[in-house]
Amino acid sequence: MSDPTIRPFAQVDVFTSVPYRGNPLAVVLDGTGLDDEQLARFANWTNLSETTFILPPTPEGAAAGADYRVRIFTVNTELPFAGHPTLGSAHAWLEAGGVPRDADTIVQECEIGLIPIRRDGTRLAFGAPPLRRSGAIGDADLARIAGVLGIAVDDIVDSNWIDNGPGWSGILLRSAEAVLALEPDFAALNGQSIGVVGPYPSVVAGVQGAAEHPQFEVRGFAGAAQVSEDPVTGSLNAGLGQWMIGAGHAPSSYLAGQGSRLGRDGRIHIAELDGQVWVGGDTVTCIRGTVQL
Question: Which of the chain's termini has less CB crowding within 10 Å, N or C?
Answer without folding.
Answer: N
